[in-house]
Amino acid sequence: MLFEGLDRGFEGEEEQVYARSLPLGEAHGQDVLLAYEINGVPLPPQHGFPLRLLVPGWYGMTSVKWLSRISLIDTPFNGYQMRHSYRLRQEENEVGEPLSRMQVRALMVPPGIPEFPSRARLVLAGQCVLEGRAWSGDAEIASVEVSTDGGETWAEAELAPRSDGRWSWRGWRFEWDAEAGEHELCCRARDEAGNEQPLEAKWNRGGYANNAVQRVGVTVT
Asked: Where do runs of H (alpha helix) occur along the chain?
């Protein structure tokens, strides 16, 4: 199925409207929505008024804003935004593979306060609660782990109860007994399909789907 938005312009020397296609099976998924309201009021323009496609679990470029037309097509869509944009490629002239579902990922709220110009975080010694969110486009979050020594050792964080259904971010927390010195905090998530965040993400020209383990330098005093 082809979804076309009202936004138009020139890119790659082509005049075009923004358009993305989805396999019919994905478009018929029970969680895919056509949204015209948010919290009981019409969508604001920046969120896609008057109508927006929402495809949970896929990167945001799939959720076409300012939706104007939906078409059933029987050949692969070859528009610029499918043929060229949002593809994982090593070289500019590669066909690459299309970006689709979100990679499993956890992020933390950096603790303490920033120290400039080093950009490290200043944290007081003692009990320090680390918190964050985790998500995946493939399966439920199964666990989150935290490292306080740059990834040398890992300990399991506590997952918050599921709150708003399958596609909501999963909260997590970890109690750290912070000792004086320099530390590098890391967090990584694993989903129920067995996907786990890598220490280093596979490079691609667009920088897409970067789910490398987050690293936060802290100075404990």
From this structure: 24-27, 80-83
